[in-house]
Every structure is written in structure tokens, then in C-alpha cells.
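Recall the central idea of this unit: under ordinary conditions, the amino acid sequence of a chain determines the structure it adopts. In this exercise we apply that idea directly, starting from the sequence alone.
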Amino acid sequence: MTVTYLGVRHHSPACARLVARAIEELRPAHVLVEGPSDLNGRLDELLLGHELPVAVFSHYRDAERAATSWTPLCDYSPEWIALTRGRAAGAEVRFIDLPAWHPAFEGRANRYADAEARYADATARLCRRFGVDSVDALWDRMAEADPDAADLTARLETYFDVVRGDTETDASDRAREEYMASWVRAARAAAGDRPVLVVTGGFHRPAIRRLAERPPTDGPDTGSRDGTWPEVPAAPEDAVTGSFLVPYSFRQLDAFAGYESGMPSPAYHQWLWEDGREAAGDRLVRSVVGRLRDRGHPVSTASLVAARTSALALAALRGHPGPARLDLLDALAGALVTEALDEPLPWTRRGPLRPGSHPVVVEMVAACGGDRVGRLHPDTPVPPLVHDVTARLAALGLDTGRPVTARLTEPSGRERSRVLHRLRVLGVPGHERVSGPSHGTDPVVEERWEPRPPAGREAALIEAGGFGARLDEAAVVALGDHATAAGTDCGRLADVLFDAVVCGATELAGPLIARLRSGLGGAARPGPLGTALATALGLWRHDRVYGVARDPLLGAVVDTAVSRVLWLVEGTGGATASTGPDRERLRALAAVRDAYLHADTLLTVPREAAVDVFRRVSRDALAPPDLRGAAFGLCRVLDTAQHTAGRGTDDDPDTRRQAPEHAEPAVAVRAVSEPRVLGDWLTGLFAVAREELGATPGQRGPLVAALDELVAAMTETDFLVALPSLRDAFAWFPPAEREQIAARLIERRGLRGSSRALLRTAADPLLVARARELEDHVSRTLDRFGLGATR
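Accordingly, the structure predicted from this sequence is:
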């Protein structure tokens, strides 16, 4: 009896052909495949007749940890060929690896993550030795470019031996390899005189062979030498675990999309598997050209002729029998990309495309990747959650593919809202909320959801089944995971709290509020505090919708957050190091404003004390300009004494003598008119008190006049310096209010025209201003050298 150990690269057509040939030649009694051994009793389900790619999705949860993983398979996966061709040849086929829940897979989301990627030194040396850019290019040259080479098996064995070397593996690899070797020993004992074929990742092959063939006295595990199959480890009694088949896609398999163990260009490799190298190359070129022409990019016949010539030359130079994938891609890039690229071509490295990649390169990668999505056989078992969700959506009329409007004051509306929110929390696509209650705003009692493309919905729903059998249960478990992942980040905890409330997970609200409050005291930045404050305040006020209004625990969160924001804001300094407005901090101050305006009875820091804090900050020369502007605005909004006693006018000498925090906005803004400061100061002011600009009809708007005077007095250089931050400042105004401000400016200058037209420029105002400055600079330079136009 012989045992043949065939090391493969996952998702390699060349390796799949080797497996098919080995089964045909050996006619083995047993075919052992790297894969989850707890699925052996369900191989009939795996082989029902699905449209590949599909994956085995596995989940595990106990009191200590939760884990999910995938075992993907496509038509040209060597493991799939071993299963299907082995069974067709009459062999007994078995998976021999540890179950996906086993601690050996801790932190590994994909069973077939290439082990050699974790031992990159050897592959890097090989790449240098063969003069290629990446391990994928090395593999293409060694295997895929000539899959029928007579010495391919020996070549791959040498490659995997070099990659493995004598490197000491980690404990997880050792556990897996010991377990797989025990299956080999059992198969050898059970096979009698018939061959056994073992198909595993090439990295594991040397160790499995050594462990399986060691003498019985060399190791403790000898029980399987009598032909008894090894025991499949059972999950702990308190754990919830399971495995289901899910549809997979070429995009998920593509190394260019970030899949850590994927062969790049899965569509090309599908063509290579189905039709061979020459036909695959033709389909690649046709696909690239078709995508480019569909997007309006011209591709001439001359360019294609040049690409063909280059591909043939590259193949000959690289020793390939004909143009392979990289030969074609390099040739097409050379013929179709006519300008310099900012970075190397993506197939010279591993990983996803980077932002800003050339459009032609993007289309080339997309064409090679393909858009195939797998489909499960109708008889495939699915987790109970799928049936529960299907029934709930049908009962509530949410399965029609039409927009959904949910009235939250009505029981039926709340139930529809909760179902959609639970699906959102579970990451199941299908609907997107486009309007509804938000953090820290006035109560809104209606939500609107729009249908979205359901791509990936079936797989996402099956995967969500790992959280529970019913939608409400699954959402609670998922929210618990989100809360755990949030740790002590009060901003993220606040988001989870809001999700728990809108999902109707009231059992989580109390503990989340308690965790949120305990984390507020240690928060080091106002931004997350502002998120927590806005969320708690909004929930405290939404009495008719969620049933948590006036909750004392929420009130305590509001009080704690306000006190902490005040403390942090007063300690902020270092204006010279400012890099621009801190919008998260400004939103936190807006939440503090709302707390004093709508819930001041909850707060232990009196309004007068808060105004004193903001008054000190507004005149602190070391505070960032945006913070000083916001503090000034909060003094105006919260200091009731100023609002009731009257504040004079811009022309009042007493007003002019007041400190900036007591002055009218028009006077205060003149004190911060330096171009590098003005826009940031206004950003802070408008973030908390944009009404101070007087954009509302009936107000005098002295600040508009003051700003108009300041901007008109700026030099061209100063205006260019101030313009970006001024634009950011006015971005706080909604379009209608910006139009009112424009109308006031037109009126103030005694002009006639449309304020709406004034706001609509043909080009970016920053670009127009810079172009004007450049023209002036050129004119001054020409005049200085006597080259100007004759006057």
C-alpha cells in the first residue's frame, strides 16, 4: 500500500489538474482532504449540486470567546476536485482537519489562509532568486503558465519544501498537522493494498508525511494505526456552534479584493480551468476591451495589436510556452496606459487596489476578477433564523421591495422599524434608513427606509444565523458583541445604546447605560463625549417613541457628560499648534448647548457656571480659534442675563469697551480678523450659534456687515489665506439660510440680482481665486522685467 502526499496551493487550477490526474492514475481507496472533519457526515449536502463558488460558514460562541470562519470552494479548488473526482472514482472521501471552532484556528477567519504568507522570508528569497515582484508572480511562472509540464509535481514539492524549510511552526499548525497525520495513519491501515491520496496545503505536506510515517514508538498517538478513524473533537457543552453552506463570490476570492489566501484574478483562473491558457487569454483581452469601451474609454485596433505583440515577446522572454496572465496584463497596461503611473502596477504586489489607481488598471483588475456569485441548491439546509426572518418580513409586508414608511407612534410602525433595525445591526442588506430619529435632535416620529440591492443578502442572513435562531435573539447577541468590541469608548458605546433602543433590546439598555456612564469620567477627548451626550439626551427626550424618556440613568449620563466636556474644554490650549477646526469637539459643545436648553434640571453644573467657563475660554489667547468662537457663541446663547438686559449696538462706546465675551458679534469678529484665524473662529461660532449672523428675516444682521467690510479690506493674498476656512465656516448653514445671507449682501451693496445665482459658481471658488492670484503674479512679474503689455 502506498500513500501519495500531494501538496497544493488553494484555488490553483494547476494543482486542481494535478489532483484530477492523480485520482485517475491511482484509483485510490481513500482520498483525504484538508477540511473540517466535523463535516464528514454532511458531504452529501456539500455535493448536492451547487453553483460554485460556495463556502462552509462556521460559527462558535461560548462564555469566553466567539469566532466565525469560512472554508471557500470554487470549481478549480484542488480540495473540490479531490472531493468530487474522488467520490466519482469510488474512493472513500474524508476531510481530515480540525473543526473550525477549534482553538487552533483562533484569529483565523479563513481556513485556507496561506501558511506560507506567515513564513514570508523563504518566499521573498525565491522571488529575488527568480527576479519576480510577488509570490503570485512566482507561482504563475512556476505553475499556472505551464500546468502540463512533466516536472510540475517535482517542482511544486521542491517549492513547498523550501517554503517550509526547518522553520519551527506555531502551536496551531502543530496541532493541525498532528491531527491530519492521525487520519493518514488510519487510512493506511484501512486501505490494505490499495493506494491512499492525501491532498493538503503544500506548506503542511512535509510535516504531515513525517508525522504519519514515524515509527509507533516515536509518538503518543498510535490508536489510529489499527484502522480506526480518529475521533472528531466535540465542542464544549456550554458552547453554541454550527456550520452552514453560504453562497460565495469571485470578489471574495480575489486577492486584489484583499482575500488573504486567494489566487488573484479568479475569473481568469476559471477560464484557465475550463478552456486552457490560450482561450483564457483571449477571454481576458475581450473582457478588458469590452469593459473599457462600455465606459467610454477608446481602445484602438492598433493598441490591441501592440498588446498582442508585447504579450508574445514577454512570454518568450520569461520562458512561457504562450502568453500567461501576467504577460497579458503587462502587455495591455503598456499599450493602453499612456501616462505615468503614481505607483507600481497592482499585480506586482499582494493586497487590494489602492485609492487613485488608474481607471484602465481598475478595469483590467475587475475584468480578471469577474462578478460570479455562487448559488446554493434549493435543498440546502439553512439555519432557523432564515425561516424566522422570511416569515416576519412577509407578515409585516416588508418583502415587497418597495420603500417603507414606519410611523413610530403606532405599534405596527414600531414593529416594522425594529425588524429593519435588527437586520441592519446583523449586517443583512436589503433596506437602508434614509430618515428618522437621530441623536440629540428634536423628536421625529417617522422613519423612511429605501430598498437597496440585495447582493449578498442570502449569505449574510445565513451567517447571521450564528447569533441565534430568532431575529430578536440574534440582534441582542450581535449588539452584545458590538458592546464588547466598543470597550470603554463612550462614543461607540453610545452608538450601541442607540441601536439597542431602536431594536427594542430593552434588556441591554440598562447595562449599556451603566457602562456608558462609568466610561465618561475617563474620556480624554470631547468628541466621543459629545456622541454619548447627544445620544443620551436624544433618548431622554424621545418620550413618545422608545419608552426610555426621562429615564434617570440617561439623565445621569447627560449630567456626567456635560461636566466632563466642560472640564476638558477649559483645559484645551495650544492655538499655535492648531491644524484647523475640530468638528467632533464642536459637535460636543453643540450637545452641551442642547442639554442646557432642554434638560438643565438634570445638570449639577449651573448654567451660570457653564457661562463662566465659556467666557474664560473665549478670551484665552492660547485656546484654538474654533474653540474660542464656539465659547463666545455659547455665552451668547446661554447667558440669559445678556438676553434680557439688552446689549447695546455696534456704535455704542460702552459696547466697544467691553471684553470680547460681552461684545456684540460684529465687535468680537473684528478682534479676530487675522486671515489665518477668522474662518476658524467663525466655524466655532456658527457650529453652536449660527443665528448670531442674523440670517433670519427681520434681524439686522450687523455681523454680515462686519464680515463684508473685513473681507473687502483684505489683500488678494490675505483673501486666499482666509478663503478655505471661511467656506468651512459657512458650510454650517443650510442652503436656504446661505441664500438669505447672500440676499443681505446684495442688498447691503445696493445691487440687484439673484442671491441663488450668486451661490452657484461655474467653478470651485478656491480655484477661481487661485487662478486670479496667479494671473496677477504673472502680470507683476512681466511688469518688473519690462515685458508687460504696452499701455
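The first helix runs from residue 13 to 26.
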